[in-house]
Batch of 2 targets.
Target 1
Amino acid sequence: MKLVIAIIRDRDAGSAVDGLVERGIGVTRLASTGGFLKDGNTTLLVGAREEQVEEVMDILRERCSRRTEVDIVAPHSTGGVPVWHLGYTPIHAEVGGATVFVVDVDQFRKL
Ligand code: 2BA
């Protein structure tokens, strides 16, 4: 048994969850926030048999939009300085696709 932890864009989450559920693969959807952009994203927890992992990857590949580059202007840390001194920093980042961790599951039980 494996646990696939996939961090994806919010806009791709519905389609990815539907793709997994349609194939009978269990999934839990969590609201998360990226540390760099400090923007909302979605984390999927997918418990899968070892032989299902590539199927999960295929669904994520198919359902999560391709990576694109974005330029945004984000508030930078105030480092304790009062908020009216908040500065803004231009950030260039690649977004989209999926960041995926696959970990071994020691036990999977439903009690
Ligand atoms: P964020 O941390 O908000 O990062 C969003 C995107 O910003 C990243 O996309 C990457 O293209 C860029 N980025 C992140 N850190 C950077 C840095 N120090 N310098 C320059 N650019 C940087 P992804 O790599 O696809 O990551 C998407 C989201 O996946 C991340 O959102 C974070 O929530 C998660 N993530 C990525 N790598 C992770 C890791 N090693 N451990 C845990 N979560 C991770």
Target 2
Amino acid sequence: MKIAVTRRIPEAGLKVLEAFGEVKTLAMHQTDDGIASEALLKLVEGAQAILSTVGERMDAATMDAAGPQLKIIANMAVGYDNISLAEAAKRNILVTNTPGVLTEATADLAWTLILGAARRAGEAERVLRAGQWKGWGPLQFLGVDLYKKNLGLFGLGRIGQAVARRGRGFDMTVLYHDVNRLSASAEEALNARWVEKDELIAEADILSLHCPLTPETRHAFTLAEFRKMKPSVVIVNSARGPVIKEDDLCQALDEGLVFAAGLDVFEEEPVINPRLFDHERAFLLPHIGSATIETRDTMARMAAENIVAALSGDTPENLVPLPL
Ligand code: GLV
């Protein structure tokens, strides 16, 4: 059995795969850089399974390069917008993801963005590191309070709920918009109130995005939405870059329509819109939502176990539903 692993992954996952089949990676995977698509197509040739990450496009070309024996694409991620589900369905290829195990780490990172952007931590650290800090100042780096404010969540799945739970520590009021409404008891437990998207936009003091990237959520936040927000709002995205139209966010920051933005994901990863670098109020991290030692070990093991199940003729635990 040939298993193609597209990137260097934690040993915990590799061990599971190596005990089962021939694991193929490239020497260049010894780095953490994404692999060029030519190399990717070569790597997957003849594989029964591909362990992929959000950085690689699993499209028709990749699936064809692998060949008709390809049984499973196991994404080491909860999101799977890098995989063409329609193409996988056409070829009877199973697709799996790693839900649940990265919820808490990603919620922690969303809060890193919330706190960092609200308190201008990136900007303040840059000044300090540049040796430009002249001492405490009454008007220096003034941010916004979080205590008792409105925490607006666009998407209240596993990660959104974990972000909401943390908001209780700040005595925040949780407003959310999602296509799926939680049960009354789940809403009560989180102290969360469902609102229309327009109300969320108008009322949020912090707006944190926790939806998957779908045709419906692509560019859900553009200048039109930013214009309706409080100018003191902090916008945070740890979901997927294209949910925000980045050029519009830059314009909103230019015009003071929003206070600050915290971004862990970008429209054209790993390329960063240069306009974002012009904004001190943009607190930027390189897609590290699930990047803790424990979480990445678990994700790698889970993706590997999905592959072992599929190649053993069992049903993997984390199947992504494919279009019919
Ligand atoms: C990371 O972005 C993931 O979807 O797990």
